[in-house]
Amino acid sequence: MEDKNQEVETETTTTEEVETNSEEVVKKFTQEEVNNIVKERLAKAQKGIPSKEELTKYNEWKESQKTQEDKYNDLIKENGEKEASISNLKMENMVLKSGITDDDEVEFIVYKVGKMDGDFAENLKEYLANNPKYLQKKETKATGVETKANNITKDDGVMAILKAKHPDIEF
After folding, report:
1. Higher-confidence residue: 119 or 167?
2. Domain layout of the chain by residue ranges
3. DSSP 122-136
4. Is 97:120 a contact under the CB 8 Å cutoff?
5. Which end of the chain is more exposed for a tag (fewer CB within 10 A), N or C?
6. 91-141 confidence digits (pLDDT tens)
């Protein structure tokens, strides 16, 4: 039994010595040592990263491994993206031709009318008829004060009737 007690005492003493030693040891690094440590860690981190040339070669190899079906699917995807872009530009063009010039309003109207079921052009006419605030042009004079003027489109039903009844008057 005495042997076991002696071992425990020895371990306690060793632990106390380690604790006192760790508190006393404070190492300070020079800037050169810090730079070397950073370089070593960066080298380890970049060890698995391929260079630009290797990435280019890998992408070329990967492209050559594609099957005809993969290439066909890529072309279909690109075509769909281009058609969506063309369709969006056509819708923006129609909105701009209707007299709306504010970029935010054009974008908003394209979004709202684009969500409606049916033909875009017909939906646009209906939407603008229900929301005439978008057809009012804002003019800024040299004084910097905004004035609003009504912008009546050619397709307005009332104007068409008036022109038909009074062809001699210019509207």
Report:
1. 119
2. 77-165
3. HHHHHHHHH-GGGGE
4. no
5. N
6. 999 999 888 888 888 999 999 998 999 899 999 999 998 988 888 765 554
- What is the Cα–Cα distance from 78 to 93, expressed in whole angstroms? 23
Report pLDDT digits (tens) over 18-49: 555 555 667 888 999 999 999 988 888 778 78
| Closest C-alpha among 160, 89, 94, 83 to residue 127 | 94
**Residue type at position 165:** K
Q: Which amino acid is present at 39?
A: K
Six-digit token pair at 149?
A: 């003027």
d(CA 114, CA 108): 10
On whether the pTM is more than 0.85, the answer is: no
Contacts of 127 (CB under 8 A, 6+ apart): 109, 112, 113, 116
Q: Are 100 and 151 spatial neighbours (Cβ–Cβ below 8 Å)? A: no
- CA 103, CA 95: separation in Å to the nearest integer? 10
Q: Which two tokens mark 155?
A: 């397709």
